[in-house]
Amino acid sequence: MEKVARIILTVVLAIVLNVEAEAQFRSLSEVENEMRQDRIALEKADKNPTKVADQYELGRLYIACNQYDKGIKWMRLAANKNYKKAQEHLVMIYALMDKPKSFYWAKKLANTGDPEYEYITGYMLENGMGCTKNIKEAKMWYQRAGKKGNKDANEALARLGVNDLPLAQRVDVGLTAHFSFDSEDKVCSKGLSGRCEGIVNFANGHGSSNYMELKGIEKPGCYHVYNSSSLNLNDAWTFSIFVKINSRLSMDGWGYKCENGAQTIMAKSHDRNGFAILCHINDNKFSTWIAAMDKKWVSGVGGNIPGDFLNKWVHVAYTYEKNTFKVYLNGQLVKTQESKGDFAEANSRDLFFGKFSDTWYPLNGCLDEARFYNRALSEAEIKILTSKY
Questions:
Q1: Which residues touch 88 (CB under 8 Å, ≥6 apart)?
Q2: Residue 214 zone, left/alpha/beta (φ > 0; ψ -120 to 50; rest)
Q3: Which of 74, 97, 229, 297 has its CA at 20 to 30 Å from residue 183's CA atom?
Q4: Which pairing describes strands 175-179 and 364-373: parallel, antiparallel, or unpaired?
């Protein structure tokens, strides 16, 4: 069954079963008498401001008792006076009985600016549910919902293609996870959760944005994100983040303090059972690379940019598509590497910003605005992300 139909069926069954549960111990004559009394009361209450709500409730009770014609009549009276609950109920009921009418009420709700119904309207247009199939109009509704953060709408746009969208809007299409690092309780996007571990500070000063600051090998800390499917890396993806290294003091491959050693941007657990994206400053350049022990696919996946970047923000982005990695630094493509990635094990692991899941390679620096996408962003789109700060 189609996705929206499943959603609608689930909701309408929950509503109907709830009312039926209330009515199942009463006789039909008792229910009818109660409804008759309600209707008489309604007829006497023309000037009662609760009339529309009462019409909706009466319609809901009729529908629960399988008297659909009477129930829909009352629902429509309330819906035609813009009572939202009645309009939503008609979307659900007509989805099972009369899809064109379901589409009519879904679009009416979408026109109020409700992102859920903007998405549903787009879905119905994309699939010709109760209307003529129209991909162009579907994408218009997806765009409206996507601008308001509707995840399903942005996933739909990623599936349909983004080339005809304004460039500035494309950077929200296919976004599956966002980490703002504004404060300890405002790090993750909706649907994700995590916690600070060790020494973690939050400060202001990266444009108008806050950021997370970590103290490195002397006082290691990180932000630990519990695993979620929205963090999965599959056939196409993008990871984007701002990084600032505050000190060259770091860790060598034996776990000892050293100058110019590796520092962790993010790790899906560990390089032994997942993979990590590392960085360092050495030889007057900022370098980044993917580390995964004994995994041949990571060989050569990384890049660098010349300059003195100590205590300076660098935008780092990795994309993967069609067995090809691309690495961008400050919006500049610095490396293209053909390699078939293997992310199955990493996709089962928690995410750590600033060090491995244990104490290895802690970052002495700052992180801001991390993003995961389920598609490979273009160079022009990467530049848009880079230019935000």
A1: 105, 109
A2: beta
A3: 229
A4: antiparallel
Q: pLDDT confidence of 37, banded at 50, 70, 90?
A: low
Q: Judge whether 196 and 221 are in contact, CB under 8 Å.
A: yes
Per-residue pLDDT, 12 = 43
Q: Alpha carbon of 68 to those of 14, 96, 140: distances in Å?
A: 17, 12, 34
Is the distance from CB of 277 to CB of 261 less than 8 angstroms? no
| Residue corresponding to tokens 């056939």 | 235
Greater model confidence, 143 or 305: 305
How buried is 101 (Cβ within 10 angstroms: 0-12 exposed, 13-18 middle, 19+ buried)?
middle
pLDDT tens digits, one per residue of 302-330: 999 999 999 999 999 999 999 999 999 99
The pTM for the full model equals 0.73
Average pLDDT for 70-88: 91
Question: pLDDT grade, residue 297 (50/70/90)?
Answer: confident
H helix and E strand count, the chain: 11, 17
Let me know the angle formed at the C-alpha of 23 by 20 and 25, rounded to the nearest 5 degrees.
120
Answer yes or no: are the C-beta atoms of 263 and 256 closer than 8 Å. Answer: no
Alpha carbons 246 and 313: distance in angstroms, whole number: 10
Binning the chain into helix, strand and coil, the percentages to the nearest 5 are 40, 30, 35
- Which tokens is 17 given? 């079963």
Residue identified by tokens 């504004």 is 182
Q: How far apart are CA 105 and CA 88, in angstroms?
A: 7
How far is residue 188's CA from residue 384's CA, in Å, rounded to a whole number?
Answer: 21
Q: Which residues contact 12 (CB under 8 A, 6 or more apart)?
A: 89, 92, 93, 95, 96
**65's tokens:** 């008792």
